[in-house]
Amino acid sequence: MSRAIDALAIVLLTAAALAFGFGLHALGDRQDFRALYLLAVGALALRSSTELLRPRGGAA
Fold it and tell me: In sequence order, which residues have a C-beta less than 8 Å from that of residue 10 and are 6 or more positions away?
């Protein structure tokens, strides 16, 4: 199960990088709404990726 979560985190990290890249490209093309949307998607994907990898504090 741990490997599946790691793989999902890597997929989310890749999606975040792609969304940021496309968002910056859209920003350069002066497509403001598309750029904001893609940058927000990238930020949420990056946050989700790091949340999956964060160690949990278990009740022992």
Answer: 49
How do residues 23-33 score in pLDDT, each as one tens digit? 999 999 999 99
SS3 at position 54: coil
Q: Sign of dihedral through CA atoms 43, 50, 4, 1?
A: negative
- 53 pLDDT higher than 90: no
User: Angle between the 32-53 and 2-28 helix axes, to the nearest 10 degrees?
Assistant: 160
Helix ranges, the chain (H) = 2-28, 32-53
pTM value is 0.81
How far, in Å, are 32, 50, 51 from residue 55 at the CA level? 37, 10, 9
